[in-house]
Amino acid sequence: MNSDSGRFGPAPIITIHVLAAIGVLFWISSIIGAFVDGNRPWAVLIVGVVLGGAHVLISRFTTLHSRKAFAAMWFVIIGDSLLTVFVNWQAILLVGFTIVLLLLTRAPSARRWFTAA
Question: 6 and 106 in contact (C-beta within 8 Å)?
Answer without folding.
Answer: no
